[in-house]
What we know:
Two copies of one chain form a homodimer. Chain A is of the alpha/beta class.
Amino acid sequence: MNCLEERILKDGVVKEGNVLKVDSFLNHQMDVELMNEIGKEFYRRFQHKPINKILTIEASGIAIAYAVAQQFHVPLLFAKKSKSINIAGDTYVAEVESFTHKNRNTVVVSKQFLNENDRVLIIDDFLANGAAINGLISIVEEAGAVLVGAGVCIEKGWQPGGDHLRGKGVKLVSLAVCDRIENGKIICRD
Amino acid sequence: MNCLEERILKDGVVKEGNVLKVDSFLNHQMDVELMNEIGKEFYRRFQHKPINKILTIEASGIAIAYAVAQQFHVPLLFAKKSKSINIAGDTYVAEVESFTHKNRNTVVVSKQFLNENDRVLIIDDFLANGAAINGLISIVEEAGAVLVGAGVCIEKGWQPGGDHLRGKGVKLVSLAVCDRIENGKIICRD
Lengths: 190, 190
């Protein structure tokens, strides 16, 4: 069991409707020491691949992507939520449906910072239906960059995002796969 | 001249309407090595004060706050933009007007993570009219926590936020104060 799985079992909270809350250490208040361990673990899992950019999506992905980027000594790039419908031609655009917030966001990345010379590792905190990561993948593809892989902290094993990405051939590393919640207890996959 | 000022002069871009863009290294693509230097500099300036929490606001403040939090070895907490009008009673709420986006956001912090035992350093990327930092200060006050100070990467010297905060007695550290833009060139305060 890695440090993140241990922490989920210790401090993760199950709310009504089997919602897993990790906002005491991962996505509202953040335990920076834990994040740094997470950054090292992603580095260990992807270090044999040439990676020159970490891509994430605002907001809670940014801290984890930072922890990873400082291990690889490469820049961090985050897709910004955009409110304007009229996006200038100098950005890549993706539509991302938020599972948590039940809404759709347009996210953008400036074309200036991503192109066919880039080898990209996508990082995010949660993987549920995979909307955020699929949106980021479409941006990587539009840029003509190489997708090296994707790393997420917590995959919700009962939702299809992880299996869908693996089925597409994406090298996906999920540090903790939570398979189900039984009687208010979180069960992680071995 | 510190490393941030040097970088602004080297890579900052002045756009139409005298808008300073630093999105190649600070708030879209992020140079993590520079951020780590920024984190160390804020640590140097605030290390003599007892600080047990770094508070920022999503999205671009998160990476800088991370760099600072890992120097202090304390948790990072970020105020979340909230779309729902009906906020439950378990959050502190502030209204923040965005200078960049010309809109108002409701931001929230869970009461669980901020209380009268906390000694807080507020961190953000930009200080213009001070709306974001004033929103965060109101949250710190509502929590009964102690505001130790505020650190920003870039203060726009021609906007009133910085002077207003100093006038209120806030210990404010701005790593770079850009005083004006002359013929498309950025002039930083000594």
